Amino acid sequence: MKVAIGSDHAGIDLKKELVSLLNEMKIECIDFGTDSPQSVDYPDFGEKVSKAVSAGNVERGILICGTGIGMSIVANKVPDIRASLCNDLFTAKMSRLHNDANVLVIGGRIVGRDLAKEIVRTWFSTEFEGGRHANRLNKIKLIEERFIKHGL
């Protein structure tokens, strides 16, 4: 599996930890930045990671900012992205099981390093359940397509 990862300055330390974890998990990781603690604008990095997932260049993405809220908003603007802010294990599991989330978002100032690692492990080890949940995702896709096509 190939994964894109990105953060703003508030998530850079946690991102480094998660890149190491992904390497341990034998998951190929493409780091889209930032590489500096200098203040940056999170939308720039959220868009890069989300576009890579949407285009099929990677299978999934991980985004980290201070709270995770901003990155979630950015990611979910990109077609075919189902980004989920997961600051606990239950939402990490359910975002994959019921929502087939393809971008994991974590609040770097909210979640500690050890919990973040467990969230990532849970998120990558949980498969999409399908069934009635697939029907719901299809409805979401139709909404997305209506807005893209008609601006409604």
Give a structural overview:
With 152 residues, the protein is of the alpha/beta class. It has a single domain (2-150), classed as 3-Layer(aba) Sandwich (Ribose 5-phosphate Isomerase B, Chain: A), CATH 3.40.1400.10. It contains 6 helices and 5 strands, in the order E-H-E-H-E-H-E-H-E-H-H. The protein has a 5-stranded parallel beta sheet with strand order 2-1-3-5-4, with helices on both faces. Strand 1, helix 1 (12-24) and strand 2 form a beta-alpha-beta unit. It is globular.
Defining key terms:
single chain, 152 residues, alpha/beta, Ribose 5-phosphate Isomerase B, Chain: A, 49% helix, globular
CATH superfamily: Sugar-phosphate isomerase, RpiB/LacA/LacB
Structural class: alpha/beta
Strand residue percentage: 15-25%
Provide the helix percentage: 40-55%
Q: Which value, in Å, is the CA radius of gyration?
A: 15 Å
DSSP helical segment count: 6
CATH architecture term:
3-Layer(aba) Sandwich
Mean pLDDT: 96
Give the termini distance in whole angstroms.
35 Å
Annotation, overall tally of beta strands = 5
Count up the domains. Answer: 1
Shape: globular
CATH class, please?
Alpha Beta
Q: How would you sum up the major sheet?
A: 5 strands, parallel
In summary, what is this structure?
With 152 residues, this protein is an alpha/beta fold. It contains six helices and five strands; from the N terminus they run E-H-E-H-E-H-E-H-E-H-H.
List the helices and strands and how they pair.
Layout: E1 2-7, H1 12-24, E2 28-31, H2 42-54, E3 60-65, H3 69-75, E4 83-85, H4 89-97, E5 103-107, H5 113-125, H6 132-150
Parallel strand pairs: 1-2, 1-3, 3-5, 4-5
Helix pairs in contact: 1-5, 2-3, 4-5
